[in-house]
Each structure stands twice: as structure tokens, then as C-alpha cells.
Amino acid sequence: MSVLVTGSIAIDQIMVFPDKFQNHILPDKIHTLNVAFMVPELKRVWGGTGANISYNLRCLDLDPILLGTVGHDFGAYADWMDQHGVRRDHIRVLEDCFTAQCFITTDLENNQITSFHSGAMDRAHEAPLDGVESEIRVGIVAPNGKRAMIEHATALKQRGIACVVDPGQGLPMFDGPELISLLDGASVYVVNDYEWALTLEKTGLDEDGVASRVGALVVTRGEQGSWLRRGAHEVGVRMDGDRDEIPTVTPDRVVDPTGCGDAFRSGILYALLNDLPLEQGARLGNLMGSLKVAQPGPQSIETDLAAIRERFARAYERPLD
Question: Which of 39, 268, 289, 299 gives the lowest tally of CB atoms within 10 Å of its CB?
């Protein structure tokens, strides 16, 4: 049985401007803005929600199937995946476009100017679930091209496969009825606290209304941990009362939050695949997030399942079953 990960595969180009943007932007000329920032520092980082989740699942000794699309510039990223054991036999290369890319320039006050080129991600529906012959136990629909998210979620539900819906930064693409259709029948609906508020606003539903449509709700809150709630049917959730508060794990240090949410999702998927209570998955997710935030870049945890089990037992005073 396999875990299917559908989501973006992207390259982040991170630049640092050794000054303040405000020193180079004239307020009275904002309507005719034409500025250039010299950036002596540039770093390329491998990312994308689908690829990040898959990387973290490899740390948990799982072999996920990553389903997505990339462009003709995928070569160096492909080498990285091969070095870290992330299978790419279901990644489709589109030779007429670029891999999705984010260009981020940060100044000395941590202000950012970001541009995102969706590239091959917009055609992620061209890598359909029908092309996966392996037996799938659980799948996640993470931020990706809109059409792909809708079609992958529909296909997983129709096949009776446990479907985790994680709209993430793709949530603004959906209007209320579209979002309801996306989460309706999901085994788990997982969002952060901001996305949870946006979900309620877009759908017009309250917490009970969303819970009635899914197996379980998971809402992450950064350093405040996460919470779970039973939905319409049990999906490995063992809790007392409507909610279960999951405490955070204090990281060794705080370096970079990028990809912490994706690390958390790997814990949820690990629990579902191994028939563990979802509460265990959320605890594991919090731990994975704490390991990620201590390292720069979204694919940076360097450990194995044995070490993670040991850290889990120390953090929660219980074994990871």
C-alpha cells in the first residue's frame, strides 16, 4: 500500500537586498514605479508542497508516489530527488514550459517582494490519477493547479481512498461552492488557523457545518500546536469531547518556518497509512514541524525514523505506535 502525494513541485529563487526597499522607492512616484535592486546574494531552494511532503515522508521511512508536473529545467531538481530517495516515476516533464518558480527578494527589514510563475503547475491535471497503477491506501491533495486539485480530490473519493484535502495557499482560488465541493467527503481537512478562518468566510459554514462534511478537521497554529475535531465519520480519531488540543514541540532553534506545514502533513499521512489514531499523527506532525523550523529551506530535515521515534517518545512521554 502506498501514499499518493499530489501537489506542486517548485523552485524557489531567494535573493537578499542588502538595504531597505523604502530607501529606493519614492512615495510620490509610486504610480510610475521603475526600480532595480542589486542582489549580491542568491540561493536556489528546492520546494513545492507536493515535493516537500514527499521529502518528509522519506524521513519517516515511507516511499510516497509523487504525482505532478515539471518543466524542461527539472534536471538539477531531479538529481536532488534521486539523492534523497524521492521517487519520480509519476512526475511528468512538460518540455514546453518551466517548472513552477517563486522569486523572493528580502530586504534588511525582512520586507519581501515576491513573484510566482506557475509554469508546469498550471497543467498538473495532465498527470492524472489514472496513470498510477500502484495500490493506494491514502492520498493528499495539496496546493497545485486548480483543475488538478479538483480532479485529484474527485478521483480519490470516487475510488474510496482516504483523501486528505489541504488547500493551503491555493485556497483563494476557490469560491464558496467550489471549496465545499473540494472538502465534501474528505477523510481529513487540514488547514492553518488563517486558512481555517478563510474557509468559514468563503463557505458560509460554521465549524459544525464543515465537520458534518468531512471525516476529521485538523487546524495548525504554529507554536501554539494544533487541534483536531471529529467529523461526520471516524477516521482514526480518538478524542474526548469535540476537540483534542495537540501541544507543540519546542524546537532546538528557530531558523526558517518555510515548509513547516508540509512537514506537519507528513505526520498525518503516516498515521493514516499505519492505522494510528489521528491524534498520534498530529503529534508527529508537530514534531516534524519543530525539526523543520530548526533548519533552513523546506527540504532540510536530516534524520531517520528511529531518531524521530526517539524524539517523539521524549517530547510526548509515549511511544510512536
Answer: 39
Is 110 contained in some domain?
A: no
Q: How far apart are CA 253 and CA 263, in angstroms?
A: 16
What does the DSSP assignment read for 98-161?
PPEEEEEEE-TT--EEEEEE-GGGGGGGGS-GGG--S-EEEEEE-S--HHHHHHHHHHHHHTT-
Domain range for 132 = 2-8+50-96+121-316
In a domain, residue 68? The reply is yes
- Total count of domains within the chain: 1
For cell 488547500, the residue is 167
pLDDT digits 0-9 by tens, 269-284? 999 999 999 999 999 9
Per-residue pLDDT averaged across 13-20, rounded?
A: 91
Burial class (CB in 10 A: 0-12, 13-18, 19+), 198: middle
Q: Which residue has the cell 486548480?
A: 146
For residue 236, what pLDDT band results from cuts at 50, 70 and 90?
low
Q: Tell me the whole-structure pTM to 2 decimals.
A: 0.92
Give the position of cell 519614492. Answer: 26
What is the rounded CA–CA span in Å between residue 154 and residue 304?
33
Cell of 186: 474528505
Residue 147 included in any domain: yes
The residue whose grid cell reads 510620490 is: 28
Q: Which of 220, 206, 215 is nearest to 184 (CA)?
A: 215
Better-scored residue on pLDDT, 243 or 220: 220
> Does some domain include residue 268?
yes
Give the pLDDT mean for 23-32: 79
